[in-house]
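To make the argument concrete, we let one protein speak, a sequence paired with a row of structure tokens, as a model reads it:
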Amino acid sequence: MSEPQPPHTTWHAPPHGPPPDDGAAAGPFTRVAGGFQHVLGRRWIKIVLAIVIVLAAAATVADRVELGYYVISPGIAQPVGPLVKVPGDRSHRSTGKVLLTDVFVTRVSALSYVFDELRPNSTVVPAVTVLGPATPPAQLSAQGYLEMAQSQSAAKAAALSRLGYKVGEHDVGTIVFSVVPGSPAASVLSVGQIVTAVDGRPTPDACAFTQALARHRAGQRVTLSIEHSKVNAHAELVPGRTVPTTVTLARWPRGVRRASSTPACPLDSSARQGFLGVEAETQANYTFPLRVSLRTTSIGGPSAGLAMTLGIVDALDGGRLTGGRTIAATGTITPTGGVGEVGGVPQKTVAVENAGASVFFVPEAQVRTARSKATPSLRIFGVRSLTQVLSILRRLGGTVPPQRSLHPAAHAGASSGS
């Protein structure tokens, strides 16, 4: 008697789906097939995980590979009023707002390049556009805070002078703006320090500093009197003690431009002049008749000068400068009220319009650039001076202080600041 054959479904997998659940025991093929699918699933999980790990590692590496570009994107437009502090008996609450605006400047990496190029209202520019020919990226923040500190001093001088106060000014030395990496200066100087003498010879300004160095050849040692001041993220130039430091000058590198001789600052053009490796400029201190402070945090550069000047004028002269409007301004400011060009105007235009400004003052040469990003609701005015800005604000309904002779308070107790 022969053995009965097992059920047919035990030996043959159906073409679609599992065998019907008819209570029959699963055969050997079904068990083997299930195990194969389980093994294959685990293998795919491992492959996917490996791909994810490789991609994550590649992204990390690409993010650290910095390219020779920066991306400039819209920053924040904020009221100047809360940043300005003046004596309480002369302070006025503003009926409108004066906005300063900045931009975000970020180094482009291999990972972000395509995204940065496609971002709306952002611009990718070569690093030299942001850094200039001599500034290394590591010094960019310190330079920005130094420029802001100098801009604040100029804004105070321009505003107080316009209001009829007497402002004193004197040069105190040569401040370091940038240091060439690998140069003799790199071991002894940093951004924000002030050189007050070279070999005992006072250097109250950049011309005196350059002339003193021009007397020395490569290989010679010079002694610099260095005030170890520094600038912080609040754009405060914090003084330090002055220390004499000796350094040996190097040969002048090829491709590095020498300081040029001018009628105001004649220089010896000797080819054997020694190389220190520093970009420096005159540091001025001002004597103000009123204690005025500007408190910024993590904002660098000189472009808020015009806006800060308007904020100080508004706080000291009634608070009705804008006629109740929200206005914005960008532009450098000189102590005498001149307005200069700035960077990032397209991005700043976007920022001030997003903040609700109806009027935007920009340097005259950059009007077309600003208007290319503005909507009809934002009026753009190109200006060259503080006087011109105040004249426009008067036409727009603002209350503008008249040009005055020396203010009586100019003879009150003076304070110094920079």
Summary: The radius of gyration is 33 Å. The chain is about 30% helix and 25% strand. Residues 210 and 267 are 8 Å apart (CA to CA).
